[in-house]
Amino acid sequence: MRGLGTTTGGTGHTETGDKDTDRGDRATDEDSEGTGSGRSGPGSGPVRGTLQAAFTAMAVVVALALFASACATGGTGARDEGPAHADLAGGSAVSPSAVASASAVPDRTQAVRLVKADPVVSTEVKRELKPCVSDDYPIDVSYGDLTGGPEDDIVVNVLSCGDGVGVASYVYREQSGAYRNVFKSEEPPVYAEIDRGYLVVTKQVYAKDNGLSNPSSEDVISYQWKSDRFDRKFSTRTDYGSLGGDDSPAPDG
């Protein structure tokens, strides 16, 4: 643009010199300019055409530059979006690792497989562990921290189909990527659960000739994990025969 201004200024200076020389020839000069006499004044046809062509060319160049810039910006935006999704994918690639670790804890179906594949479980329990309805196995599964291991421990209670009586109880601890049996009780009726970090096992005791629905007493035994095994800490017995109170006569006096 500065070059165009210099040319125009020079042409103006020449045009001023012509006015000082002969004002009377103005009409003749203008006629000569109109016929393309070689004068290069700012109003001359060739110069005006050149300037217009230059401005038009510049406008086209600017428009193309803006268009290219807009396209480049749009392209960059699309490409920037890609790595963002890639990072999310990378983040979600870590999630499956955490989710796989969590899903390593067996659900009910996997707990059934765990019991059936366990060499510690008796053949009788494995034989009786069958679905009650469709694929609904009679088991209770609970999770919690009993042994201080890297994963939650698993407590599995195998029940009877008809009355839901506890047939056997097992505790599995994660060790070196696999679950290992660290506790079993196969003397029914029995039921194990987690209570404030203790393994609490409830056993019902039957007197001779008592029916299954009429236990004579109940033992509740609490175990604590210590030195890689469960130690019996304390136990309580509830005698159902004494729940109605002591009927012995009060002492005299």
Description:
There is one protein chain. The strands form two sheets. The protein has a four-stranded antiparallel β-sheet with strand order 1-2-3-4, covered by helices on one side. Strands 5-6-7-8 form a four-stranded antiparallel β-sheet, with no helix packed on it. The protein is globular and about 115 Å long. It has five helices and eight strands. Strand 5 and strand 6 (198-205) form a beta hairpin. The relative contact order is 0.06. It is α+β, with helices and mostly antiparallel strands and 253 residues long.
Oligomer: single chain
Count of the domains: 2
Rg computed from alpha carbons, rounded to a whole number of angstroms: 49 Å
- How much is the average pLDDT? 70
Distance between the termini: 128 Å
What is the count of helical runs?
A: 5
Which ranges are low-confidence, i.e. pLDDT below 50, for 5 or more consecutive residues? 1-44, 66-103, 244-253
Number of strands: 8
Shape: globular
H/E topology pattern: HHHHHEEEEEEEE
Largest sheet: 4 strands, antiparallel
Strand order of the largest sheet: 1-2-3-4
SS-derived structural category: alpha+beta
Q: Helical content, roughly? A: 40-55%
Q: Tell me the strand percentage band.
A: 25-35%
